[in-house]
Amino acid sequence: MDAVKAGGCSSCAHMEKCYGTESCQLKKNKMKFVEVHLELTLALISGSIIIMAWLLQRYEYPALSVALFLSAYVIGGYFKAKEGIEDALSNKTLNVELLMIFAAIGSAFIGYWVEGAILIFIFSLSGALETYTMNKSHREISSLMDLRPETATVLVNGNERKVGVNHLVIGNFVLIKPGERIPADGKIVKGTSMIDEAALSGEALPLLKTVNDEVFTGTVNKNGLITIEVTKKSEETLFQKIIELVQQAKDEKTPSQLFIEKFEGPYVKIVLLIVGLMLFLPHYFLGWSWSETWYRAMVMLVVASPCALVASIMPATLSAISNGARKGILFKGGVHLENLAALKAIAFDKTGTLTKGKPSVTDLFIRPGLDKEVFLQSVYMIEKQSTHPLAEAVVHYVKDHYVKNSGTHSALSVDSMHEIPGCGVEAEINDIPWKVGKRSFIGDSLADSFYGNEANRLQEEGKTLVYVADDKGVAGLFAVQDTLRETTREAVKSFKDQGLYTIMLTGDQAATAAAVKEMTQIDTVVAGCLPEGKVMEIKKLKEKYHTIAMVGDGINDAPALAAANIGVAMGGGTDAAIETSDIVLMKNDLSKIAEAVRLSKRMNRIIKQNIVFSIAVIALLIISNFLGHVSLPLGVIGHEGSTILVILNGLRLLRG
Fold this sequence. Notes:
The protein is of the alpha+beta class. About 55% of the residues lie in helices and about 20% in strands.
């Protein structure tokens, strides 16, 4: 607990106490805020000084006007000059920032103080706008950081003790009061409450959580006093994984961006070489005066700079990533977002991806004449004592359809119960014997005589049958199935509307796979598919369709996710699936993939618009300069104006 101390720490001395990196993050965010606004403020101050210097120049105060112009150069160009020099020293290459500095100095050198100052002003203004764009696209990280509390109330020998969340360890018991955010992933060991998980899962309504239910960092305890046991270290929580994914996406560059960065250095050298030749060759070969020669060289230095081209990609990419993160689509890098536009086929795991991953009761048949109330209560009393997944499905069904409204009769009690692994449960309720289990456990002949046609139909649909028998024979029949997610049908339809080939890869039996195919209208299914089989199918798809995506949630899906061009994991899936994937759907909503494809195509379209526009402007200005139709002020406005326009065009991706 060394970090928990009075008086703050060196990195966050403004705070009374330091509780770890989140505390220090507050000061870091404030520094970024000041830096962004300082850059814009200095640009505006530079503009104001330029106006004053221009007025003094007109009223013939040359010395004072030059002094003001120099101060405008320094104030407006500080950030860009610093950025250009640091980048040149670290990468040992020339860049756009240095090109602009040379152009401004060259303009002043030949007496065009106003033009050089305006160049610095607009360049610094566009730089401030680009910085604003970058920081706006990163706000999801800051907003996520705000969701995690800095401290937690740990129970030690019954006493409450405040500690930093980074110092929580597995096994700690944490007290969470109504209205507080949950500081760690864990399970409830005491209490019941409604938990708001909207920030992580997108679920609009709070969920009722009780003892042994899982809770997650950053979610809100709405109304009850609960105690949780910490089950994961702070760096392993779902919350931390989200932050890492967004941060990773911010730092990773697309192929287009990498190409532009490689292109920038050689291009700047070529421009400087051409400008160097223009400083004297036109005077001798074209008959220009020295004044005209130097002037046109400076105009060339301005208009040939690839500022707009450099700004064509990164603001648009970060804006698109930000848009996706806001909607629960986390991209691990711009490269994956860019590749989505070329998607031709998409493969799905079944359990936990197309389906909810938990069996649910879909059909119920009861023996004619049997009291439904007594039947449901009896089954509930038996199955709630079992931990089998099918028993849990039956219990949830009875609770949802009957017990919540009517409760159970106190007269009913389980006198004895015996669970037979792989078969079912035997029990006695008020001296009446009951059996709940598979067909053979009840007796094949008895099962055949109870809704035989309906039972066959249910089995053909891939459903599992749970029979219930009493002392008079078969009393009822539950059909249980892992049901589709609410968005699955709509999502598959949207994929097909986009021209994507769909395929389901599942380890389930053929009958179950065929039933899901019928319900979802997926193009193809492959049943009985083990992890290595899924990888083989993915390789076949890649040979045929070139760019394919795999969507899964389990450990067994991880190899296929890695083998696909684009791996997509469900946010509620396993750590292995999330870590292997390229995209994570935090809301477990498959329709978000189609939305991501549309976002990718829109981003690529905007980037192409920016590139074509910026190249066209540069070419037009260069040609016009050689023809003598572009003045230095017009060249500055055309060059910097195009840079601002491509940045604003990229910002459109933040909307919609």
